[in-house]
Write a structure and sequence with these properties.
31% strand; 5-stranded antiparallel beta sheet; 14 strands; alpha+beta; 7-stranded antiparallel beta sheet; single chain
Length: 238
């Protein structure tokens, strides 16, 4: 597989074309950003651990029947993936209230609601990635109601699978965000990444944060948190 031109560069990843039009290479960078790119830093080897963790989680989901863009981990920073057209919606799953939801609604962080909460965020940096509802998403022409129904069903399945997996290594899956894309034949599949960049992960015993909140909140030991998640997942042979 030959790597060709750079197609896209985001905050945390680069996407390269390959000599197969249906496949891309995704490279994980060491960049860290927060608060809609207002806070930035370079954290040495963050991309290495994000790639490794995301690869393990995508393989776990694929083994359970969730279709994803992930094909294989090529090296410490690169993944080979199916080429998709990303739907510009983040699906945010909240098992425990934290972060922006706690601030926005005045709920104490750490509160476990009686239900699992799913939010939609419109991926537009210039608008601050606003929260939207199903009707907004359809009115914007991003998805249909039937596609949303499919996305919600897959997302809840992902939540069940990841909650169970992380619980088995002593981690609480507080919340996470996922993105979906359309393949060339129109199928909607899981894309982007799943890592401590996109999840809140708390140690079950101590409540210690093991995710990007350590960067957002200046808690220190950011790379150590990513390394700990990587170590625990590897202990399962993932």
């Amino acid at each position: 597989m030959e790597q060709l031109e750079l197609l896209y560069e985001g905050k945390a990843k680069q996407v390269f074309a390959t000599d197969d039009p249906e496949r891309i290479i995704i490279r994980y960078k060491d960049s860290a950003t927060a608060y809609n790119n207002l806070k930035k830093a370079t954290i040495v080897n963050k991309g290495v651990f994000s790639n490794d963790i995301s690869s393990m989680l995508f393989r776990h989901l694929a083994d359970a029947g969730v279709e994803t863009h992930f094909i294989e981990r090529l090296n410490e920073r690169d993944q080979l993936c199916r080429r998709v057209s990303i739907i510009p919606i983040e699906i945010i799953v909240r098992n425990i209230v934290a972060g922006s939801m706690a601030q926005r609604l005045g709920i104490v962080e750490g509160t476990r609601p009686s239900n699992t909460i799913v939010d939609l965020s419109y991926k537009r940096d210039e608008l601050g990635d606003p929260l939207i509802n199903d009707d907004h998403a359809v009115a914007l022409g991003l998805v249909t109601y039937d596609e949303l129904k499919q996305i919600y069903a897959v997302t809840r399945r992902i939540n069940d699978l990841l909650e169970s997996l992380f619980d088995s290594v002593g981690i609480t899956l507080v919340d996470f965000k996922v993105e979906f894309g359309r393949t060339s034949d129109g199928r909607i599949i899981l894309a982007d990444e799943i890592s401590p960049d996109t999840c809140r992960l708390w140690d079950k015993q101590t409540g210690e944060k093991l995710d990007k909140d350590r960067f957002r909140r200046d808690l220190g030991k950011v790379i150590e948190a990513y390394e700990e998640i990587d170590r625990r997942l590897k202990s399962l042979g993932k």
